[in-house]
Amino acid sequence: MATNDCFSHYGCLDNSTFGQRITGCGYQWTMVGENIAAGYTSPASVVQAWMDSPTHRENILNPGFKDLGAGYAYNSSSTYRHYWTLDLARRSGQSAAASMSRPEPLAAVSATPTPTATNTPVPTVSPRATGDLGWQTVYGTVRGASTSTPVPLAAAVVSYTHTSLVNPGGSGSTTTGADGRYSFNPIYLHDTDSVTVRAAVTGYATQAQQRSGLQTWYNPVFDFLLTPWTPTPTPTASFHIYLPLIMK
Q1: What does DSSP say about strands 29-38 and 82-91: parallel, antiparallel, or unpaired?
Q2: Model confidence at 244, in pLDDT bands (50, 70, 90)?
Q3: What pLDDT, on the 0 to 100 scale, is given for residue 115?
Q4: Which of 128-132, 152-156, 206-210, 240-244 has the lowest mean pLDDT?
Q5: What is the pLDDT of residues 151-163, one digit of tens each?
Q6: Residue 228, φ and ψ in degrees, nearest 5
Q7: Beta strands in the chain (DSSP E)
Q8: CB neighbours of 60 closer than 8 A, spacing ≥ 6?
Q9: Residues 56, 57, 58, 63: is their CA dihedral positive or negative?
Q10: Among 12, 38, 86, 160, which lies 20 to 30 A Cα-Cα from 141?
Q11: What is the model's pTM?
């Protein structure tokens, strides 16, 4: 970005995505994210700017990410001079986060601001992608709302249906562990796909969530809070039989 005087998540020369560049470095991932910023003159100032921005902060605090790489470049002849990148990822085969107590990761949707000559510091997050998005791992927790404090539900059956008009879809199911967590094998997403995840456990009302492929790409966490459900007793039926009387 500094060398080519551009400010974008897409490659300045080849329009590559950050996911493609990470893969090109030999890192096989199931989940990736990126924060970039320009114009900030110190690590403390850029990190503070990211933490003050809800979407950047949620990227940084998302416990689904296990690894990170940070980069800085300076070019006195470029618009912003100082350029910063933070890539976050989870390697293929790494388990999901040990704790799911976190803010929900939100979609990184803000558009890249138009650079100005004032050298105003500008943070940004990933713009919306289109077309084939790549592999993503859907995961989450299932909890019960039977008490004032939601409790993890073990042995809940969680299933997903992935519908795609472009690539092969699929479906699968798993059960939650003692901590209420679950995860599926990575699925290959297109922005026009749909993903439906359903959670069911005895004694609770079944719930389902549906998202587009793009929404699932940016937010693969499907958390459920199930409410207790008691079947309504079937009323006892009564029958009256009338027999004809024959009198003679």
Answers
A1: antiparallel
A2: low
A3: 34
A4: 240-244
A5: 999 999 999 999 9
A6: -60, 145
A7: 29-38, 67-74, 82-91, 122-125, 132-136, 139-144, 151-152, 157-163, 170-175, 181-183, 187-190, 194-200, 207-212, 224-226
A8: 35, 50, 51, 86, 88
A9: positive
A10: 86
A11: 0.48
On the 0-12 / 13-18 / 19+ scale of CB atoms within 10 A, 59 is: buried
Element (H, E) at 44: helix 43-52
For the chain, the residue count is 248
Please give the Cα distance from 16 to 24 (Å, whole number).
10
Q: How far is CA 132 from CA 16, 146, 165, in A?
A: 13, 41, 12
What tokens appear for 145 in the block? 């709302």
Encoded amino acid at 185, one letter:
N
Q: Which of 43, 113, 128 is closest to 79 using CA atoms?
A: 113
3 state DSSP class of 86: strand
For residue 43, how many C-alpha atoms fall within 13 Å in the half-sphere facing its CB? Answer: 4
Query: On the CB side of 229, how many CA atoms lie within 13 Å of its CA?
Result: 12
- Pairing state between β 187-190 and 132-136: antiparallel
Which residues partner with 140 through β-bridges? 182
* Region at 81 (left for phi over 0; alpha for psi -120 to 50; beta for the rest): left
